[in-house]
Amino acid sequence: MSSENEPTTASQPGTPEQPVASAPPAPAKTDAAKASKVLGEAIAQVQRVIVGQEHMVEQLMVALLAKGHCLLEGVPGVAKTLAVRSFATVVGGQFARIQFTPDLVPSDIVGTRIYSAREEKFDIALGPVFVNFVLADEINRAPAKVQSAMLELMAEQQVSIGGHTYPVPQPFIVIATQNPIESEGVYPLPEAQRDRFLLKVDVPYPRGNEEFEILRRMSVKPPTANPVLDPELVAELQELASNVFVHNLVAEYIVRLVLATRTPDEFGMPDLVNVIQIGCSPRATLGLVAAARALALIHGRDYVLPTDVQAVAKDVMSHRLVLGFDALADNITPAQVIERIIAMVPPPTPVWNNQQRSAQPATVPGQG
């Protein structure tokens, strides 16, 4: 049942309106409001330390609530590592920073078997990834065999050593950083690993007034962040986010956005056929739903609007696209392609009234 002043959604002509799935009703608006207040306090604590970069901080929270991983890309010195450290302090739980280097080996990350001469048997030494927050600093400096060791960890949230499987603590999130400008001593992330990241956030330089504020703050004792959340509360917030209501027309809009990356000519963009070599995978569809739900909860709503989907689309989809040689020759970026798709694929229109959401409400299951 929906309360007053909640939106229903008007479809585009010819759009089917059958429910895509059924799920329990959305949580009460009071729960969403309380969650939004707590999440706002957590974000504010991070921004006590980080000047500006509001989008990056918000997307870190989106990734946490959506049970996804986040890749931060930016030039050196724009506070990527400091932001992650502050975020981990605010959220609580165990934190580990792994500096990726060319001589790193997989056992340095996940752990290994060690022979005990005294007991004449092998013991398992677990690696540093068995924490709630893993900061993979400069992840593109490690060779492919190390990056591939992260695949099972990120996808299954477990590690296999010596024929045994060891689950990581919950909640669990990998936040990786990389420098986009260096080409020597770096190993580009393979498509399979990029697809494991829910979000890829571009971290820009601070604006002029923000740089002045950075100078002012760092001229005295730098501020520190205080804990606001804990792992148990994070798990509750993740469950609340997974139950945020998604109208089936919003779900269909998400599917159309993803399909437009695979067959752009069917959506009025024939010029993108030779630009896009490989479109977004179904992980992008699930990621858009999960990220939009998380963003809606941060904003105090228990339902997703098309604007939530549009706000997270570039960060969810751009790193999953593989562009062809024509795009590289014309200096076309994946972000520009996603912006074009958002502009061309029409969203459903919210209609505000006092009726129920639907006689048969439809939601999309949360990301597993």
The biggest sheet amounts to: 5 strands, parallel
DSSP strand content: 15-25%
| pLDDT < 50 runs, ≥5 residues | 1-28, 354-362
Q: Percent helix among the residues?
A: 40-55%
Give the spatial strand order of the biggest sheet.
3-6-9-2-10
- What radius of gyration results from the CA coordinates? 22 Å
CATH class assignment of the largest domain: Alpha Beta
Return the domain count.
2
CATH architecture of the largest domain: 3-Layer(aba) Sandwich
Tally of individual helices: 13
CATH superfamily membership of the largest domain, which one?
P-loop containing nucleotide triphosphate hydrolases
- Quote the CATH topology of the largest domain: Rossmann fold
Termini separation? 26 Å
Question: What features would you describe in this structure?
Answer:
- The chain is α/β, with parallel strands linked by helices.
- It folds into two domains: 1-27 and 243-368, Magnesium chelatase subunit I, C-Terminal domain (Helicase, Ruva Protein, domain 3), CATH 1.10.8; 43-242, 3-Layer(aba) Sandwich (Rossmann fold).
- 40% of the residues lie in helices and 16% in strands.
- It is built from 13 helices and 13 strands.
- The chain has helices at 29-49, 54-65, 80-91, 107-110, 144-156, 191-194, 208-218, 231-242, 248-262, 282-298, 306-317, 325-329, 334-344; strands spanning 6-10, 70-73, 95-99, 111-116, 121-126, 133-137, 158-161, 164-167, 173-178, 199-202, 276-278, 322-323, 349-353.
- The strands form five sheets. It has a five-stranded parallel sheet with strand order 3-6-9-2-10. The protein has a two-stranded antiparallel sheet with strand order 1-13.
